Structures are given as structure tokens and as C-alpha cells.
Amino acid sequence: MRRDVKSNIVKLYVIKISKWLMLTVPIVFLFYRENGLGTRDLFLLKAAYSFAVVLMEIPSGYFGDIWGRKVSLVIGSVMGAVGFGLYSVSSGFWGFLACEMILGVGQSFISGSDSALLYDTLEEQGLGNTYLKEEGRLVSIGNYAEAIAAPIGVGLAALSLRTPFYFQAAVAFSAVPASLLLFEPQRRRVIQKGNFTQIFQIIRYALTRNTGLKWRIIYSSVIGTATLTMAWLIQPYFVHLSVPLALYGLFLPALNLTTGFVSMHAWKVEARLGRDRTVLFIAFCIGSGYLCLSLFSTIWAVAFLYLFYMVRGVATPVLRNYINESTPSEIRATVLSIRSLIIRLSFVAVGPFLGWYADGYGMPAALLAGGMVFLAAGIWTGLQLRKEAPGNAVEPFLADDGALPPAR
């Protein structure tokens, strides 16, 4: 074991904090409204961000597997700092659109490589079985950072709604030195370095040849799309409830503290319920959360958001662990990027539609529509996962002679 590799975990904490200490999130919808934008524009901009992630998600994951997860994280950190730097001086839909595209490409270089580097760091130390706990802590730290950011962002917004963006640029820059100081863990590497046709081999392996991994990815993507969509529906929902701005700084951090606390103990929930019941529990609660919110239009309905975020705290580390358990080390970042790509593609389709639906028919109708879709998709894919992925065995991506393994 190399002590320098062990230090990666602390540096990944710094990178996670820089990405989740989002001073702008609590007021971004109000900031857009100040610049003449509406709910539809909010979802169009966030869909553009997701589209940028989609364009680079799998290539950037493959880049991390080939050239190193550290290099990928450095590129993503630099682009994050640049994106928020430009955001702080931009105005109007098209200016914001350019910033979202830069931030999306930057995020694609971080997505997958961070979890892959964490998993392989633990594997090198002989601690691979502790990944779920460590991922839970990492998710928890991110949510704690977002919780702290909410009141700070609201406080800075009292000066002006643009002020949080100035500070966000500085926060994003903190990831740059942390990523530069990372060390690359030892791992098996794909044989044909730089051969981009291998990307299609990896996609085929993950989504057709390894059926257990396929359903873990698809199910995790459904739940990920549901939680991502809810994250951007919260502020329009608060506007629908006429929640005062001052309470944004109370409700939003409490939501993230809830997720953070539960994430640290997600492994206990999964151990108590067992894998099969955990899968259906997550799917049922996530879909039902949308439906419950659609039925009430009083401030007390915020209680359902806390229940939703508790389940999110279980889902995030548990579902990442399910995928990592079934993924060979040499293609881990690419496979995790496939999951993120599916989530972003789904959000590009669902997010703007729900934003348009909310503008035209009201927030309760949009939540009802989203709830029916996510409940049905979550339960169905969860049942498929239970049937097709009962074990944790890792099927090799390439045999010793470099050939693809036979299809199952």
C-alpha cells in the first residue's frame, strides 16, 4: 500500500465540497426571473447543461480510463472554475446557455472518474468492501456542503442576486489544486490505448452482454433522473407555495442535511432490508414522493420533500455500489459515465416537458405527471433488476487474449 494513494480520499472530499457548495442554487430561479426568464427557461438551461454532459459523458469516462482519472478530474475542475467565472459576468438566456454548456462538459470529466478513483484507491489498500461506507460519507459531505451553502447563498443574495455567482467562482476554483495533488491508483488498464472503437465495446458489454450490470445501470438511471428532476422542481414548487425567500435558507439546507445524514447510514438500511426489498423500497418512495407533493398546496407539504430526500440519501451510495460491484476496474469510469449519460438524456426529455407543463397547467399537475412516470418506471426496472442481477460476480470485459467474453 502507498500512503500517497490513501491521501486521495481527503482530496476527493475537497473536490466534492467544491462541486456541492452551491451558493447559487437556492436563488438561481429568482436570478433567472430577475433576468426575464421563466420555469420553462430554467429547465431549458438545465437541459442544455445535461445535453453538454451527454455529449462528453462516455468519451470523458473513457478518457479517464485511458489517460488517468486524475487528468480527467483536473480538466473538469478547471472548466468548472471557468464556467462560474463567466456566469458571474453574463446576462440573458444565451449568455447563461454558454456557461451551462461549459459547466456541463466540465462535469462530464468529473462524473465517473471521481467514484472510480475512490473505488480503486480503496481496492489498492485492500479495503474494497468499505466502498459503500466511503461513498456514503462522500455523498454526505456533498450534501452537508450544499446545506451550508444555502443560507450563505441567500445571505449574499440580499446584496444582489448576482453576488453569489462571484463567490461561486472562487469555490469552484478550490477543486483545481486538490485535483492536481491526486495520485493515480494501480489498476488493470484496457489493452488498446486510445482506440475509441473500444468505447462501443464497453457500451455493448454494459448494456447487452452483462445483463446483471445492464439492469443495475437502467434502474439506477431511472432513480437518478427522478431525483435530479425533483432537485430543479423544488424552487418552482416553493414559488407555487409562496414560500418567503428567507425560508429558502432554512428549508433547503435542512433538506440536504437530511440527505447527508441518511447517506452516512445507507449501508445499514441496505443491510437491514436486504437488496431486493431496498430496490423496491427506493422505487416506491421516490415515485410516491411526487404524487404526495401534487396533492397538497400548503407549506406543510414540504414535509414530503424531507421524506423524499431521506430516500435519496439511501439511493445514491447504494445504487453506485451496486454498479461498482459488477464492473471491472479497467472500464469503471466509462461504465459510471454510461449511467450518467442515461440520466442526463432522460432529464433532457423529461425536464423541459415538466417545466412547460408546470407553466401551462400548474405545479400540481406537473408533479402528478412526473410521479406516475417515475413510479411505473422505477417499479418495473426494479423488478427486472431483482430477476436478472441476483449476484455480485464481476464478468470480465476482455479475456486474457483480448477477446470479448461470450454473451450471456
From TrEMBL:
Keywords, comma-separated and alphabetical: Membrane, Transmembrane, Transmembrane helix
Stored SUPFAM superfamilies: MFS general substrate transporter
Record-linked PROSITE patterns: MFS
InterPro entries on file: MFS, MFS_DHA3_Transporter, MFS_dom, MFS_trans_sf
Domain Major facilitator superfamily (MFS) profile: 1-389
GO MF term (any one): transmembrane transporter activity
Transmembrane domains' residue ranges: 12-32, 44-64, 71-87, 165-183, 217-239, 245-267, 279-300, 363-383
Domain of life of the organism encoding this protein: Bacteria
Record-given protein name: Major facilitator superfamily
